[in-house]
Amino acid sequence: MGLHTELAIGAYFEQKVAERGDADFIVYPDRDLRWSYRAFNERVDALAKGLLAIGIGKGDHVGIWARNVPDWLTFLFATAKIGAVLVTVNPVYKSHELAYVIKQSDMKALAIIDAFRDVDYVQILRDLVPESRTHERGRLESAEFPMLKSLVYLGPEKHRGFYSMPELLLLGEHGDDDALRAALASTVNTDVVNMQYTSGTTGFPKGVMLTHRNILNNGFFIGERQKFSEKDRVCLPVPLFHCFGLVLGVLATLTHGGTLVMVESFDPVMVLAAIQKERCTAVYGVPTMFIAELAHPMFDLFDLSSLRTGIMAGSPCPIETMKQVMERMHCPEITIAYGLTEASPVFTQTSTDDPIERRVETVGRALPEIEVKVVDPETGEECPPGVPGELCCRGYNVMKGYYKMPEATAAAIDADGWLHSGDLGTVDEEGYYRITGRIKDMIIRGGENIYPREIEEFLYTMPGVQDVQVVGVPDAKYGEVVGAFIKKAPGADITEEDVQEYARARIARYKAPKYVFFVDEFPMTASGKIQKYKLREMAKEMLGIQIGVFAGENDPSAAEGGTA
C-alpha cells in the first residue's frame, strides 16, 4: 500500500487548500466562527510570516499553552510551514510543570491564553519570568530560562512584554513572502514538527519528538479506518495538546478534506448541540465523555441522526457504553483506536465494518505500514495467539526519540527499531489485539494474576453501576487485593455489600473486590485519561494502609502511558 504522503505538513496543507478552497475547514459552532480552507490558510500565512519577523525559524521550539482556542490551530500550521517545532503544553499544568517544560524543551517562544479552570496563565508566567514586565517584547532575557525570547498572547489584549495576536498577524501581513516560501521549501518530512510531554516512570515528563511524516501519515490511516471523505464533519471535544485532538482529529480530517467542528473545552451539552447544529458525521471522545453525554438529562432533545462514525480511545471502553453509542447516538460505525504518544499515536484500530464483538472486545488490527507483535516481557520472544505479553510496534510512526534523553529513548525503542508500549495484550488468529492491562497495572493476589479490565467489564453488568475503575490495593496477607471505585447510576442505592455479593456469586472469588469505594468523579489527566495511581493512593488513605511499595504504586505512567 505504501505511505499516503512524503510531503511535510505545510506543503501538504497547501495542496489541500488548492483542492478544497471554499469548503469549511474549521467551525466553532458556539460563536459561529467559520474558516474555509482558503481563509484559514491566509491566517496561517500571516502568522507564519509574523513569527519569521520576530526571529522564529527552522528548528526553533515554540510552546503553546492553551485550551482548544481557534488560534491554537493557526499556530499548529504556521509553525509547521516555517519548520519550527510546536511544543504542546498541557492546559492544566501549574507553574512547577510549566517551568520544567520551558527549560527541558529549550523553548524560544511561548503562546498563552489568559486562564483555564483554576490556572491563571498570565500570573504564572509573570511569577516565573519576572523580566517579562520590564523587557521589550521579543528581547526577553530571563535568568531562569535563557532560551526564552518571546511571549505571545493569543488574543487582542495587550500585556506588557507580550506580542498580541493582532500584532503578529499585522506584522505578517506586511511580511516577506519569499522568506515564507524559502522556509516552506527547506522543511522536510523527517523534521520534528511537534513535541508532546508524556509522564514517565521517573516522574519527569519526557518530550516525545514527532515528525511531519509520523503524524501526517498516521492521521491519514486513522481516517481511512473510519471511511472518511470530504463529506465528513468531525466533532472534536478532545484536547489539541494531545495526539487524540491533533492527530486523530485535525490530521485525520485534513488528509480527507473534511471539516473540523471544534468544542473549546468539553461540556456534554456543547458537544450534543455542535453535532446537531453542524450535522456532524463523526464524534470523538474518551469513554467518560460518551458516558456523560448519554447520561445527560437533555440528551433526548438533540437530533444526532447525522452521526455515523467516530473514535473512542484514551481508556478501555465499557461494552454497554459502546452499544449505547451505536444505538442511541446513531454511531453504528464508531471505532476504537489504541496506541501511545511515542507511536504518533495509533498503531491498532477497529474498522467501521468490524462486528460489534470485535469492536468492543478488541482494539482492532494493526494499521497499514506498521508491524505489531506481542512479546514475552521476560524473554523478548514473540508470544503465540492468545498468550499475553507486551505490545510492540515498528514502522514510519515510531517517534524520533525523547528530546535530550538518549537513555530513555534506548529503553523505549530497541536495537531493531521496535517501540515497547508497556502495555499487556494478546492477539488472536485473525490479527485482532486485546489490551489486558499495563505491565504495572496487573494485580497479583497471592500469586494469581488479575487483569483490572476483566473485573471492570464484569462490574459494568451490575444494575446501578454507571462507571467503574479497578486497581490493586496493598494487602498484608495477599500482597494485593482488588479495589473497585464505582460511580453510581442516577437514583441507584447500591452498597459495598451489594457489589461484593453480586461479584462473589458470578466470578472467581479471588477476583471479587475486597474493597468498594463510591465516588462522584475519577482523578483525570487533562487528556481525559484516568489516573489509576491516584485511585490507589486514595484507597490507601481511606483504609489507613501503611504497607511498603507494591507494583506500580508511585508510578504515574501506570495511568498515563497507555492508549492514545
Write the layout of secondary structure elements.
Elements: H1 9-20, E1 24-28, E2 33-36, H2 37-53, E3 61-65, H3 70-82, E4 85-89, H4 95-104, E5 109-112, E6 115-116, E7 119-120, H5 121-128, E8 150-153, E9 162-164, H6 165-173, H7 177-186, E10 192-198, E11 206-211, H8 212-225, E12 233-236, H9 243-254, E13 259-262, H10 268-278, E14 282-285, H11 287-295, E15 309-312, H12 319-327, E16 333-339, E17 346-349, H13 356-361, E18 365-366, E19 370-375, E20 389-395, E21 401-402, H14 406-412, E22 419-427, E23 433-438, E24 443-445, E25 448-450, H15 452-459, E26 465-475, E27 479-488, H16 496-504, E28 515-518, H17 532-543, H18 557-560
Parallel strand pairs: 1-13, 3-4, 3-5, 4-10, 5-8, 8-9, 12-13, 12-14, 14-15, 15-16, 27-28
Antiparallel strand pairs: 1-2, 6-7, 10-11, 11-21, 16-17, 17-18, 19-20, 20-22, 22-23, 24-25, 26-27
Helix pairs in contact: 1-3, 2-3, 2-6, 8-9, 10-11
Give a brief rundown of this model.
Helix content is about 30%, strand content about 25%.
Proportion in β-strands: 15-25%
Individual helix count: 18
Radius of gyration, CA atoms, in whole angstroms: 23 Å
Give the N-terminus to C-terminus distance in angstroms. 24 Å
Choose one word for the global shape.
Answer: globular
What spatial order of strands do you see in the largest sheet? Answer: 2-1-13-12-14-15-16-17-18
Low-pLDDT runs of 5+ residues are 547-564
> Mean pLDDT, rounded to whole units?
92
Question: How many E-type strands?
Answer: 28
Main beta sheet: 9 strands, mixed
Q: What portion of residues is helical? A: 25-40%
What structural class do the secondary elements suggest? alpha/beta
Oligomer: single chain
